[in-house]
Amino acid sequence: MDTPAGDPVRRAALLSVVLPVYNEREVLAELTDRLSAALAPIGVPFELVFVDDGSRDGSAEALDDLAAERPQAKVVHLSRNFGHQAAIQAGLTYAHGDAVVLMDSDLQDTPEAIPALLAEWEQGWDVVYAIRTQRKEGLWKRALFALFYRGLRQIADTELPVDSGNFGLIDRRVRDAITGMGEHDRYYPGLRAWV
Length: 195
Ligand code: UDP
Ligand code: MG
Fold this sequence. Notes:
The protein has a 6-stranded mixed β-sheet with strand order 3-2-1-4-6-5, sandwiched between helices. It has 7 helices and 6 strands, in the order βαβαβαβαβαβαα. It has helices at residues 25-39, 59-69, 84-94, 114-122, 139-155, 172-179, 188-194, and strands at 15-21, 46-52, 73-77, 99-102, 127-129, 168-171. It is of the alpha/beta class. Strand 1 (15-21), helix 1 (25-39) and strand 2 (46-52) form a beta-alpha-beta unit. 40% of the residues lie in helices and 15% in strands. The mean pLDDT is 93. The chain binds uridine-5'-diphosphate and magnesium ion. Magnesium ion binds at residues 104, 106, 108.
């Protein structure tokens, strides 16, 4: 992707990271440590908005413990499992940063990539997509993913970038537009591309 040339055009007063969580207790501590290590050096204040989507493995309590230790961590508790897309919407609603990163909480998305996403936002881009260069899934599932993204692109009215999932960064204005949409059957990558 081209970037506008020159110095950063803006700086975030707050960066939000939104993390939907469903039964991820075992990785939450590592996830939070890696996020903090990746974000602290940037020097931008950040908040970690975890959404517990009705986990049954103790993730909710583990998140409350994390939030008690770390002022940056916030937890939204959903009353039952509503599904990934609903958890995303809840998290975006509680995210107040100038720039908002959305990522999975199972360490399939790389916390260490966030500074590069933010750097693009600072250059003036309002939507920054992360693309997986390696997938831990097997060949069969990877082929199905590739087929899914290309098939969806064929039938969608909105131009969708291939091979990018939920992981990425949006400007606060994009977040406002997405949270303001009344859609019930939500597909975040589609809404983001449309905005
Ligand atoms: N997730 C969620 N609610 C659900 C299912 C998943 O919030 O009902 C979360 C999950 O904890 C993870 C992200 O959404 O952070 C993606 O889920 P998953 O890893 O199952 O999806 P995949 O990697 O297969 O796309
Ligand atoms: Mg996953």
